[in-house]
Here is the input.
Amino acid sequence: MQISYHGHSVVKIKTGSYTILIDPFINGNGLTDLKVEEEAPDAILLTHAHNDHVGDTVELAKRRDAVVVAPVELANYLGSFGLDVVPMNLGGAKKFDFGTVKFTKAFHSSSYTTDSGDVIYGGMPAGILFKAEGKTLYHAGDTELFGDMELIGKRNDIDVAFVPIGDHFTMGPEDAAYALELLQPKLGVPMHYNTFPPIKQDPEVFKKLVTACEVRVLQPGETIE
Here is the structure.
């Protein structure tokens, strides 16, 4: 499995012949190295409905008839654009050809704002456990620190955990460091920071706070094998 980080909360997974994108916010993301016209994922996984996470899902999914896996209300909304959607909910898991997806809880809000200013309810926000090739990736989505992260860590042998550190809208560096103590991954990676002024953070400060596991600060486009 090959995992790469692309700014904000965008994560790309390559497993076998499949490419999966999580929260593909590309246009409007000043930190990403990706270009929408160059991406053709087989699957898109969404943690919640905020525009900086849904991002370019519709255009990307239509390019290759990618399957879009999302919380049920968000999936149903995206299905109205003719996308191939798989609605899921917290605690549920589904095995796909490209791997197994399970949604976990996250504590946040979830709504999508259309170009006309309408606000669409997006259901419950989620984290994602993705398993393939005997490895487990945890993408926490947008969330605060919560105690059940310990259960997620106990019930899953997590190889890589992506956790938000931006503060303001999610947990900040101190809480994110404690989240890694609860999750006990082999490797922690910070995300959801420096995209906008309110979430400006120094990831190296976060790294110094973590004692529970190794931390790698990935630059956009950098890859973990």
